[in-house]
């Protein structure tokens, strides 16, 4: 996706949250949401507002909690031919792992 589309989607997400919770949250929280640069940052702020989670879900915001990244497998010292199942340790006759 282009940077412009991402910014538009992020701004729509912010606007939707602010419309839903406009009268119930304080100005400090609104400023935090407006200053966020990514959806995960916005979700971290929303995650702290536990009393409004059910209201957000009713209005179509399903992903309240920030997403976590999966760790990549460590491929050092292993035979690797571009598939995860092919990562196998090789032992030398002396017992050293390669």
| H-E order | HHHH
N→C terminal distance = 40 Å
Q: Summarize the amount of helix as a percent range.
A: 40-55%
Q: Number of helix segments?
A: 4
Strand content: under 5%
Number of strands: 0
Molecular shape = elongated
Radius of gyration: 22 Å
Structural class from helices and strands? Answer: mainly alpha
Characterization of the model:
With 98 residues, the protein is an all-alpha fold. It contains four helices and no strands. The chain has helices at 3-20, 27-35, 39-48, 53-58. The mean pLDDT is 80.
What attributes characterize this protein structure?
single chain; elongated; mainly alpha; 98 residues
Secondary structure topology:
Layout: H1 3-20, H2 27-35, H3 39-48, H4 53-58
Short description:
This protein has 4 helices and no strands.
């Amino acid at each position: 996706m282009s940077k412009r589309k991402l910014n538009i989607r992020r701004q729509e997400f912010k606007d939707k949250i602010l419309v839903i919770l406009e009268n119930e949250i304080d100005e400090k929280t609104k400023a935090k949401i407006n200053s966020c640069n990514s959806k995960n940052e916005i979700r971290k702020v929303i995650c702290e507002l536990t009393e409004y989670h059910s209201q957000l879900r009713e209005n179509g915001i399903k992903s309240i909690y920030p997403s976590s990244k999966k760790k990549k497998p460590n491929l050092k010292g292993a035979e690797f031919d571009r598939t995860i199942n092919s990562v196998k340790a090789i032992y030398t006759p002396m017992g050293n792992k390669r």
